[in-house]
Amino acid sequence: MDFSYSDEQRMLQESVQKFIQKKYDFDTRTAIVQSERGYSEEYWKLFAELGWLTIPFKEVDGGFGGSAIDLMVMMEEFGAGMVVDPFIATTVIAGGLIAELGSEAQKEDLLGKIMQGDLQLACAFSEANSRFNLSCVSVEAKKEGENYVLNGEKIAVLNGSNADKILLVARTSGSMLDSDGISIFIVDPDSDGIKKNIFTNVDGQKASNITFESVTVSADQLLGVEGGALAALKRVIDIATLAISAEAVGAMNSLLNKTVEYTKIRKQFGTTLSTFQALQHRMADMFIECQLAKSIVIMAALALDGDGSDAEKAKAVSAAKSRVGKAIRLVGQESIQIHGGIAMTDELDVGHLFKRITVVESSFGNSDFHTMRFANS
């Protein structure tokens, strides 16, 4: 089987690499993370001009093609460069749900704005008791005439502080763990009754806990059929899981390369660290884990692009996320230990890469969750 990239994928990869080399150095990223919004509006518009915001969308929706391999190629480079802009939150998750469930009017109104860089979105799906179970939804949406009234709280909403619209996953019928009765609504974040608790994650990216108290939305803000959103939500979160796994692969490769280079210049007992056989073995183990992680992410991307069932695709994604989680632990810890105390300082990018992959490991299901999901599928 030929695993080489197409000409278009190589051009995409080179485009991201050049952007990071010329415009996204460590100091620039640090300034962006410390800014009020936590991302660069200027660079987000540049992403749109370069066509990157079209990558997750199919051609019928005006996108690049919607290939999981294309998404993987770009996210791997984002991981290597520690890009913090809300690509997954806005385009992959929220944009993916609109593309899957939205009416023609909703897609026409929203998808173009996403791809042009004019719309920031967030999807509020996690709750305090959900533990990665997407069907665990207690936020209520009660029908009252031509409107719905929303009540409840969502936690760890990615890009919630910057979103122009929030996609809220709420229950319109059934009990908290039922698969049926889950709906998604497009909510204006400035609506009466919405309260945000904005915070910064350990990796520097912003998120929010959002409370909804008697928030009224019209029925035309419902995405898709009432009570039938869970299957689409699962598919979109699987794509996001693939994307964040590819990001971790890029970050781990960057950690490996930086560790190898560090051992070539750092001296101990009058000789460089790279000459010590024990450290050579540890870095060889890091290399093996990076290669295994990349291989299984490619496998998962091919599965998502294939003709298999949703269950088969979910199983491939869980295999990848579980294996990537194992690699994150070894590669991250070895990198920190070989660098020593300097790796724990904010002035060195290694510590920031470690924090990011640590967050990735628990995003959209940790290794234990995906190992169990794989075993039960």
Describe the structure.
By secondary structure, the chain is an alpha+beta fold. The protein has 3 domains: 7-115, Orthogonal Bundle (Butyryl-Coa Dehydrogenase, subunit A, domain 1), CATH 1.10.540.10; 121-228, Beta Barrel (Butyryl-CoA Dehydrogenase, subunit A, domain 2), CATH 2.40.110.10; 231-376, Butyryl-CoA Dehydrogenase, subunit A, domain 3, CATH 1.20.140.10. 51% of the residues lie in helices and 16% in strands. It has helices spanning 7-23, 26-33, 41-49, 68-81, 87-101, 104-115, 230-265, 277-305, 310-339, 349-361, 367-376, and strands at residues 121-124, 140-144, 147-158, 165-171, 182-187, 194-200, 206-218, 222-223, 267-268, 271-272. It has a 4-stranded mixed beta sheet, covered by helices on one side. Strands 2-3-7-6 form a 4-stranded antiparallel beta sheet, with no helix packed on it. Helix 7 (230-265) packs antiparallel against helix 8, helix 8 (277-305) runs antiparallel to helix 9 and helix 9 (310-339) runs antiparallel to helix 10 (349-361). The longest helix is centred in the middle third of the chain and has 36 residues, at 230-265. The radius of gyration is 21 Å and the shape is globular. The model has no long low-confidence stretch (mean pLDDT 96).
